[in-house]
């Protein structure tokens, strides 16, 4: 707005759209995420700019934000001992300090804290700032290199952030949490384990049953052999090659 004074002072706001997922810096117009965890797709936001003159003039436009479900392995977390609403309002300055001290282009991927409810967003003095750095060739800087540089420049970064937040600042490198498994995946894993356990148990039962049957069959065979050895085989061939008579010997008839 080319006007001067209040007529040239613009304030930005979200008037329609996904205001629970996104918010806007009213002074700079920078849009940032509030909570888009587990979400992907394109979100249409209606943004309004209004001057502060006596007769307030406004203009609106639609901003389309695309959230990619993929995640980069080069995202690094920086933990600040500041409230999330304060960090969000000063995210542009935080980015500027990091770029100045690291010597790379820095993009703030996400800002979040343990408190997700909007009414409790100023109650936790710890905020996680997820960043990704790009070199002059617009290539992602490996996460380990970013972490190493953050540790080396920690004192300078904290000093720069103290000027932004007007107070002592602690900036520590954190470990980005792994993405939680989806309920469907967890259910599939549990079901797979149960089925595998059932299959193993069934296989063990079959093997034990076969082993037990063989054991008893062997015992029965030994008993049969012992019994057969106690009696002459009635069909055994005699010395002349003919079958023995089944009739009792004459001396047994008497």
Write the layout of secondary structure elements.
Blueprint: E1 10-16, E2 22-24, E3 31-33, E4 41-51, E5 58-67, E6 76-80, H1 84-89, H2 91-102, E7 105-112, E8 127-134, H3 143-152, H4 154-165, E9 171-174, H5 183-229, H6 250-253
Antiparallel strand pairs: 1-4, 2-3, 4-5, 6-8, 6-9, 7-8
Helix pairs in contact: 2-4
Walk across the major sheet and give the strand order.
Answer: 7-8-6-9
What is the 3D shape? elongated
Helix content: 25-40%
Total tally of structural domains: 3
CATH architecture descriptor of the largest domain: 2-Layer Sandwich
Q: Unreliable runs, pLDDT <50, ≥5 residues?
A: 117-121, 184-191, 241-248
Tell me the structural class: alpha+beta
Q: How many DSSP-defined strands?
A: 9
Q: Helix segment count?
A: 6
Amino-to-carboxy terminus distance: 141 Å
The radius of gyration is 41 Å
CATH topology of the largest domain: Alpha-Beta Plaits
Described by strand count, sense and barrel closure, the largest sheet is: 4 strands, antiparallel
Keywords:
36% helix, 3-stranded antiparallel beta sheet, alpha+beta, Alpha-Beta Plaits, 254 residues, 4-stranded antiparallel beta sheet, single chain, 23% strand
Can you describe this structure?
Residues 236-254 have a biased composition (Basic and acidic residues). The chain crosses the membrane at residues 185-208. Keywords: Calcium, Membrane, Repeat, Transmembrane, Transmembrane helix. Residues 1-77 form the Cadherin domain. This is FAT4 protein. With 254 residues, the chain is α+β, with helices and mostly antiparallel strands. The chain folds into three domains: 6-67, Immunoglobulin-like; 76-174, Alpha-Beta Plaits; 181-223. It is built from six helices and nine strands. The strands form three sheets. The protein has a four-stranded antiparallel sheet with strand order 7-8-6-9. β2 and β3 (31-33) form a beta hairpin. α2 runs antiparallel to α4. The longest helix is centred in the C-terminal third of the chain and has 47 residues, at 183-229. The protein is elongated and about 110 Å long. It starts with 9 loop residues before the first strand and ends with a helix. The model is unreliable at 117-121, 184-191 and 241-248 (pLDDT under 50).
């Amino acid at each position: 707005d080319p006007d001067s004074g209040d007529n040239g002072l613009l304030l930005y706001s979200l008037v329609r759209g996904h205001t629970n997922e996104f918010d806007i810096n009213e002074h700079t117009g920078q849009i940032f995420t509030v909570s888009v965890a587990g979400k992907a797709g394109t979100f249409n936001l209606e943004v309004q700019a209004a001057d502060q003159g006596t007769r307030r003039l406004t203009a609106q436009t639609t901003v389309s934000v695309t959230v990619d479900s993929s995640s980069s392995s080069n995202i690094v977390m920086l933990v600040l001992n500041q409230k999330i609403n304060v960090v969000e309002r000063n995210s542009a300055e935080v980015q500027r300090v990091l770029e100045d001290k690291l010597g790379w282009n820095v993009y703030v991927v996400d800002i979040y804290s343990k408190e997700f409810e909007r009414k409790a967003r100023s109650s936790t003095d710890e905020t996680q700032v997820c960043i990704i750095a790009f070199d002059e060739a617009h290539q992602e800087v490996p996460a380990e290199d970013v972490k190493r540089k953050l540790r080396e420049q920690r004192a300078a970064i904290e000093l720069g952030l103290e000027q932004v937040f007007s107070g002592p600042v602690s900036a520590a490198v954190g470990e980005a949490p792994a993405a939680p498994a989806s309920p469907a995946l967890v259910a599939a894993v549990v079901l797979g384990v149960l089925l595998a356990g059932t299959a193993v148990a069934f296989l063990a039962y079959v093997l034990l049953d076969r082993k037990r049957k063989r054991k008893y069959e062997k015992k029965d065979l030994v008993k049969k052999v012992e019994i057969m050895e106690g009696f002459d085989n009635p069909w055994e061939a005699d010395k002349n090659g003919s079958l023995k008579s089944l009739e009792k010997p004459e001396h047994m008839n008497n």
